[in-house]
Amino acid sequence: MAELGRKSVEEFRQSDKLPVIVVLENIRSAYNVGSVFRTSDAFLIQAIYIIGYSAKPPHKEIKKTALGAEDTVSWKYFKTSAEALDALRAEGYSVLAVEQAEGSRLLHTFQLEPADKIAVVFGNEVTGVEQSTIALCDGCIEIPQLGMKHSLNIATAAGVVLWELVRGRLGKE
Known about the structure:
Blueprint: H1 9-14, E1 18-25, H2 30-42, E2 45-51, H3 60-66, E3 74-78, H4 81-90, E4 94-98, E5 105-106, E6 118-122, H5 131-136, E7 139-142, H6 154-167
Parallel strand pairs: 1-2, 1-6, 2-3, 4-6, 4-7, 5-7
Helix pairs in contact: 2-3, 2-6
């Protein structure tokens, strides 16, 4: 582990995180939640906000895919998206839904400054981000998709979006 430069749990907790919070709204699969924990650990994401009926730690299926990231990444549970978004705004975060919607901005055109605080909302595997939640967001970002299918698994979408948000900040801090 030392040769790979991996942080211990304590080193991770004490590391400066990127000012990005992932919001998981009504995610059906605990495996998907666990995968997002693992990706969030990889990119030093600030926290995950878990909403509604999404599984939350401790949970055996989260543990199976998170591989310990459920112990490193901070998380909070909220009953509703409105409560989570209110808390985010109180902390100075801009909130964007990751959704194919009218007026959404393509992910690769979205520019952030290193200090910008952003939260990204990922929705249910079948229905996406709830329309009532989209209405509360500051906008939507969309992953360009070129093939016949215009949907991605939530864990895959989170990996793409979080990498793009992290990639744009590398070397700028």
